[in-house]
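Renewal narrative, Specific Aim 1. Our central claim is that a sequence can be written position by position from structural information alone. The example that follows is taken directly from our test logs and has not been curated for this report. It begins with the structure tokens describing the chain, in the order in which they were read.
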């Protein structure tokens, strides 16, 4: 059974999309394997521990990292997603930690991470919550920690799906206390399109 994260009530209701309801079905972002963009980082040896996956969903990236021998933790606001992630870990015999927690309130963990990965979380926030999220990240990262973020790109046509994000928005959000090392175009794999969605992979370092 899923369990709440440490500190205050991490599952406080918010006016964001009800992601827990989405996991009652098959949400398009839950592809059942790690995103290729994060697999590439793993192969390159870019991931170090302790590692935190914010908005981990059903845990594929946490399990990938733990499978490499890293101390890996995943947090998500959706209890159903965390239940699925814990079941996968048990079935695969992989040691990993999962918490139901709000990524805007990570300070309650009282723990610091050398790597944070984000697959499709940053792009769900409005402007105010973006600022809160960046502050929340800062509260749990060490100096020099890497934040790898995969998000919808403003080059994706149409208006379906989450908010599109521009390079300029990413740089502006992380202008204070961080350095944006790179933002490269890539693909966010989704179940509803074999071509996936146009995305950015940002590599951001905490100063």
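The sequence written for that structure reads:
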């Amino acid at each position: 059974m899923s369990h709440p994260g440490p500190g205050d009530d991490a599952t406080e209701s918010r006016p964001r999309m009800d992601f827990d309801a989405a996991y009652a079905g098959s949400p398009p972002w839950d592809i059942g394997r790690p995103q290729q963009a994060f697999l590439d980082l793993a192969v390159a040896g870019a991931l170090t521990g302790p590692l935190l996956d914010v908005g981990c969903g059903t845990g594929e990236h946490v399990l990938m990292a733990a499978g490499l021998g890293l101390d890996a933790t995943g947090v998500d606001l959706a209890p159903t997603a965390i239940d699925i992630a814990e079941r996968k870990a048990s079935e695969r015999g992989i040691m990993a930690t999962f918490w139901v927690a709000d990524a805007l309130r990570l300070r309650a963990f009282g723990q610091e991470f050398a790597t944070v990965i984000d697959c499709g979380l940053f792009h769900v926030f409005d402007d105010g919550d973006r600022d809160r999220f960046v502050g929340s990240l800062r509260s749990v990262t060490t100096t020099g920690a890497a934040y790898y973020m995969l998000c919808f790109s403003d080059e994706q046509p149409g208006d379906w799906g989450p908010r599109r994000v521009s390079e300029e928005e990413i740089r502006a959000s992380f202008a204070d206390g961080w350095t944006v090392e790179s933002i490269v175009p890539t693909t966010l794999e989704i179940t509803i399109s074999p071509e996936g969605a146009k995305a950015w992979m940002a590599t951001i370092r905490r100063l």
